[in-house]
Amino acid sequence: MSSLDASTMAHEHRTQREDLACPRCAGAIVANDTELGCVACGASYPIRDGIIDFRCHRHDYYFNPLSREAMGELTREAHHVPWANTVRRFLRGVRQNPDWLDNLVADGRYAWKLLLRLPPNAHVLDLGCGLGNLTKNIAPSAGRVYALDLTFERLKLARVRFDRFNPNDDIVLLAGGDGASLPFPDGSLDCVTLSGVLEWVADDQSVWDRGGSRLEKATGAFLSFFGAANPRKIQLRFLNEIRRVLKPKGQLFIAIENRLSYRYFGGRRDHHSGLWFASLLPRFLANIYSTAVARRPYRTYTYSINGYRRLLNAAGFSHQEVYGLAPGYTHLAELLPLQTDKHLWQPPGSQGFDHIRRSRNFVPAYGIIASPRVPTGLSLAEKIAAAIESQLSLDGNSVSFAHFHTTGKGKGVISGHTKHGPIIVKLPFNNSAIAGAERNHQFLQQVASMGKVRELLPRALAAGKIQGVPYYVESRVEGRLLRAELGRQNQLDFLKAVAGFLQIFNSDFHERAPEELSGEFYRHQVSLPLEQVADALEDPALIEEAKSYLRDQLYGLRVRRGRAHGDFSTSNIFVRGSEISGVIDWDNSDLLGIPILDALNYLESAHRYLNADMSLAQTIPLLADKDQLNEKEQQFLEESYNRCGIDSNHHAAFVSLYWLRHVAQQLDEGLIYNAPALEERVTAVLKGLLKSHSRSDS
C-alpha cells in the first residue's frame, strides 16, 4: 500500500471523514473519490469496487467456502441474474449445506434487532459482516451501517445484495480488521454487532504454528494456552477495542453459543472444534485434547452465562441483558428472555425437559446486549409496545410480551397481553412477509362485520411502522392447534367442523352465479403462480407442458368465486374438542378466490401431518386420486364441490391448481433458494401430475 506525507495530502482536494480513523495509528482520515489517507502517518487506503480497503497486512486473506475463482465468477454473474439464482449457485458450491442457506437468506435469524436501543440516526458496525445478510436486515432501522469484513471477495457479493435490497439505506463497506485498531474514532458508534464472531477472534494459526516438525507444532499448540496468546486474553483485547469505539451508552450485541448447551452433553459435537465434549472440559484439558486429536490447539472459546458476565465485566461492559436463542443463533426459532426488563417481558414457565433446554444455564445459544453504562432510550420492541398502547388508548406500561418466535416465512410473532386480553404482534422482516401481513390485516378489517364467522377470526387491532419495522396487532384466538390434536383424535372427527366453517365462511354462496375461469380471473388464479414456478425451475419445456395441461383442464370451467383463506392447513386452525375455535394467518386470503382450494388444502395438510414419511410428491397424487380417499373424505369433497358449483369430475385438475398456488406461496417464503426442495416439491410433483394425466388420457 502506498504512503502519502501529510503536506501532500493537505494540498490535495480532500474532505475529512470524521466518522473514520486510521487502523494503523488511529489518526484522522481525509478522502477523495478514489482513496482515503491518514493525516498523521500518511498511509493511504484505496476505494475499490465501492469498498474502502482498510486492510493493513493480510491482503491475501480469504475465508469462504467457495474458491476465490468460483466466488469471482459468482459475483460477476450476480449483477445480471435474479438473486435466487446467485444463492442457488452458491449453495451448489457448499453441497446444499442448510447452514449456508440460513446464513444467506433467513431474515428471521436477525429478529433480535428488536431488542436493541437504536436511535433513528444510529451508526452501527456489523463487525465480521460476511455476505451481508445481517447488514441488510438492520440497515432499515439505523441511520448508517458499516459492513466490515477481512475477506474482500465476500464484500463484493454483499455489495450486490445491498444494491438489490437496500437501495435507500446508508451502508458503508469496509475491508479490514487486521490493523492495530478498528477504523473508527473513540466513542463514535451507537452499536456494534458480533454474530458468530467473538469465538473466532483468537483462532489465528500464526499464533501457534511456526512451521517445523509435528512435535514443534504440538509444542506451539500447547504453549499457546499461556501468556498473551491465551484465547481469553485475545478476546478481552478485542472487546476493549470495541468499547473504545462505542459511545458510553452504546450497545454491543453478541450472538454466540452457550458452552454448556444441553446439546453438547452427547447430542452433538462442539460447533467450532468439531470435537465431542470439548466445550465442557476445563480449557487446559480441552487444549491438550484438541492438540492430540485434531492436531491444533483449542482456541474457539465460548462461555456459560456466568462466564460471559465475567468476560464482559472485565472488558468494561458493566450492563448486560441476556436472551436465549433456540435452537441457536442460526436457524433461530425462539428468543427467550433470561436476564432483561421484567416489565415488558413476562415469559411463561416450563416443565420437564422443556424447562432444561430453555433454562438460562443450558439454552443452546445466547443473544447478549452489553453496554459500558446503563443505556437510555427504548429498544425497538419497547417502542412498538408504546405505539400499541397509544393506538389502543391504553395506559403506559400496560402491554407485556410473553413469547417471541420466528417462522420460516420471514416473520416474527410475539404473544402478549393487554388489560383487554391476549394479543399477537406480527413483525414481517422482508417484502413478501410485509405484503402478506398487510393482506392479513386488511382482510380481518373487511370481515369484522360478518356475523358468526367473525367470532372465529382474530380482530385487527393496530398497525404501524417503527424505524423501518412494520408491526401488525390482532387478538389471539383460543384453543389448541388442530395439527396437535390430530395425533390424539381421529382426523375424520374434524371433517364435519371443517365443512361447517367453510360453509359459514361463504354463507352467501347461493346468491352468487358461477363464473367462467377465463381472462383476468384465469390469469390471477393460474397464470401468475405458474409464472413464479417457471422463474424458479428454469425448465421451459416442462413449464410449457404444464401450461398446456392446466389450460386444457381448467380454462373456461364455471366456478363460484368467494372468500378463500389461501393456506387453510391444520397449522392455522384452532379447536376445542372437535369444534373449530379460530382460524389464523390470512396472509394469502382472497375475497374473490376459489373456495374449493381451501377444502383440498385441509385434506392434503392433514394427510401430510399424519404421514410424516410422505412428501408432497406423494400426498398430491394421493389426493388427486379420489379412490385413494376414504368414504368420509370423498363425501366431504363431493359436498364441497357442489357448494362451489363445480363438477367433481374436474377434481384432479383442481388438485393441480391447489398444488400450483401452494408452491407459488412457498417460493415467496424462501423455497425459491433451495434447489433440493425445489426438485422434491415442485419438479417431481409436476412431472408426476403430468404423467398421471397422460395415463388417464390414454
Automatic annotation (TrEMBL):
Organism of origin: Nitrosococcus oceani (strain ATCC 19707 / BCRC 17464 / JCM 30415 / NCIMB 11848 / C-107)
GO molecular function: S-adenosylmethionine-dependent methyltransferase activity
SUPFAM superfamilies: Protein kinase-like (PK-like), S-adenosyl-L-methionine-dependent methyltransferases, Trm112p-like
Keyword Transferase: yes
Annotated protein name in UniProt: UbiE/COQ5 methyltransferase
GO BP terms, alphabetized: methylation
InterPro entries: Aminoglycoside_PTrfase (IPR002575), Kinase-like_dom_sf (IPR011009), Methyltransf_11 (IPR013216), Methyltransf_Superfamily (IPR050508), SAM-dependent_MTases_sf (IPR029063)
Domain Methyltransferase type: 125-208
Residues covered by the Aminoglycoside phosphotransferase domain: 418-599
Keywords: Methyltransferase, Transferase
